Amino acid sequence: MKVLVIGLGGVTNGGKTTLAEKLKKMLPNCDIISQDDFFKPESEVETDERGFKLYDVLDALYMDEMVKSIHNWIKSPASSGVVTEELQNTCDNLKNTEDIYILIVEGFLLYNYEPLNELWNRRYFLTLPYEECKRRRSTRVYQPADTPGYFDGHVWPMYLKYKNEFEENAVNVVYLDGTKSQEELFSCVYSDIIQELKKLRE
């Protein structure tokens, strides 16, 4: 049994969850762990002097719990409830992959936490220009809701800070342009993962 752990990181509203769900439908033995499931409760998230809740930082997340969940999955992916569904396209590419399990970990802060960095087989990072990101973010409803100025005052600066950080550490990522259509993004990542599966089978 072999496992492939894929990181799908990037900017807020870049299309990570949509892409992860699409890949799950089309890949064998595929499961998703979402970083959003590891946010601390609001009462434990720090507030800065401007009254902004600091959600877009590692301290707002139970990162050790997340790492533990991924390790547990790697230890026994078959028992994690992955359903080997009849794939929508059992093409030749996917023959003989019954013994390979794929985990997609999606989230906005994946490549800045050392214990995660030794787990990835592949890392993807979705980007968006500032204006488009702000526009998309404004159409989403968050719990708690974004306060006025929150995007410019906290969300975008933290995105740039963490992106610069992993780039300075020369983390090897494949950049994806989040303005491309869902179909384009999917086919790019899907064909890349198929290549990884072939390597694992050899």
Automatic annotation (TrEMBL):
Pathway(s): Cofactor biosynthesis; NAD(+) biosynthesis
Stored PANTHER family: URIDINE KINASE
Catalytic activity: beta-nicotinamide D-riboside + ATP = beta-nicotinamide D-ribonucleotide + ADP + H(+); beta-D-ribosylnicotinate + ATP = nicotinate beta-D-ribonucleotide + ADP + H(+)
Family: Belongs to the uridine kinase family. NRK subfamily.
Protein name, UniProt field: Nicotinamide riboside kinase 1
InterPro entries cross-referenced by the UniProt entry: P-loop_NTPase
GO biological process: NAD+ metabolic process; pyridine nucleotide biosynthetic process
Sorted UniProt keywords: ATP-binding, Kinase, Magnesium, Metal-binding, Nucleotide-binding, Pyridine nucleotide biosynthesis, Transferase
Pfam family membership, one: AAA_18
Any one GO CC term of the record: cytosol
GO molecular function, one term: ATP binding
Entry keyword annotation includes Zinc: no
Translocase among keywords: no
Domain of life of the source: Eukaryota
